[in-house]
Amino acid sequence: MKNNLSDRTSKVKFSPIREIFDLASKTPGLTRFEVGQPDFATPIHIREASKSAIDEGLIGYTPTNGLQVTREAVSKRLSADFGLEYDPNSEIAITVGASGALYLALRALINPGDEVLRPDPGFATYDEIIKDADGIPVKYPLIPDKTFSVDVKVIESLISEKTKAIIINSPGNPCGNVIDEMQLEEIMDICEKHGLFVISDEAYDKIIYDQKHVPAALKAKDKYNVLTIGSSSKNYAMTGFRIGYAAGDKKLIAEIVKFQSLSSICADYVGQKAYAVALFEDQSETTKMVDEYNRRRQYFVSELNKIAGFNCSSPDGAFYVFVDISEHNPDDWAFTKYLIEQVKVTCIPGSSFGDVGKGFVRFSFATSMEVLHEGIEKLKKHFGTKLDS
Ligand SMILES: Cc1ncc(COP(=O)(O)O)c(C=O)c1O
């Protein structure tokens, strides 16, 4: 029997973070900050919408590009919130999460050997999906001293003949950085100058503090040079529904839909019905969640900065703090394991998001104030505070 695996399997890796999850699952009494998903229950009106979809009983395949009602909901939301106009019939596809949209977009865009720029630190999956599409990931550094902002000159210096596209992510995972309007304009300018396509991962667009999200497509001279990717997961606490979208040029959307027809046929019917309600109905549940994240952010950042050898800037979006722990140990993997085993607190090693993350760890504050408080007390007890030293 020829059951030996394809060459492709050795090109793509599982996330090394699995090692941390395994260690955490074996260690009792942990205070957990590694989880990258909302701790809130999906708002009740969204759950009710999914129940009614089930009660209707007409749970079949949907069109490959998604239910009309869900595409229209995405289109209306993008128009109402940002003044971005996309035709729901041809310029929007509903996908299996933002992950599905990213995966299919790279399949549709990348030829073997094409280089794709991605942020470092950045969502680790980017590297693997670029490689799986036979592309080459090229990391552009975010600048730790400047709250992980982008340096457009550095990005430009990494562009080669082979560079096809750039992935940008704002608000960003793992640093919670937000690319400001001026930087967005500069990125769009260099992309136009060098003929680069922009994949804008805006999965956290509603989780932003003290400012309003600006979609990259708004800053492009031609919005069709940008593929906007969004998600129900974080904005509406719907990670398990697995619904996201891609909005952009109709030729690219058609190819994304073609590849979706091969991989999953369509996104889940019940999830699409629920997402349409999430997008159409009033947004106050999301506002409440973001207010609570903001309260936690203020507490957590201020308390973490009091701990000896812990230094972090305040994130402008998402629900992560990226903490410099290099005074304790420049090896963030060893530090994470130490934290789990000795302090009974979990986090994610920064270098799993890219080389710039070396000496940092990511804490998620998508957890209750009680858990944040418990973790802070453990850390203070173990490491002491800056006032003590
Ligand atoms: C930056 C970023 N993009 C995309 C995703 C995937 O989101 P989804 O659940 O919509 O697939 C995540 C998930 O953590 C993320 O952090």
Q: Give the structural class.
A: alpha/beta
CATH superfamily of the largest domain: Type I PLP-dependent aspartate aminotransferase-like (Major domain)
Query: What small molecules accompany the polymer chains?
Result: pyridoxal-5'-phosphate
What composes the largest sheet? 8 strands, mixed
Could you explain how this protein is built, in words?
Helix content is 41%, strand content 14%. 47% of the residues are buried. Strands 1-8-7-6-5-2-3-4 form an 8-stranded mixed sheet, with helices on both faces. The chain has a 4-stranded antiparallel sheet with strand order 9-10-12-11. It has 2 domains: 8-42 and 284-383, Aspartate Aminotransferase, domain 1; 44-280, Type I PLP-dependent aspartate aminotransferase-like (Major domain) (Aspartate Aminotransferase, domain 2, 3-Layer(aba) Sandwich). The mean pLDDT is 96. The protein is of the alpha/beta class and 389 residues long. The protein starts with 7 loop residues before the first helix and ends in a 6-residue tail after the last helix. It is built from 14 helices and 12 strands. The chain has helices spanning 8-11, 18-26, 44-56, 68-82, 97-109, 125-132, 152-157, 181-194, 216-219, 250-263, 269-280, 284-304, 332-343, 369-383; strands at residues 92-95, 115-120, 136-143, 149-150, 163-169, 197-201, 226-231, 244-247, 311-312, 320-324, 348-349, 360-364. The radius of gyration is 21 Å and the shape is globular. Pyridoxal-5'-phosphate binds next to helix 5.
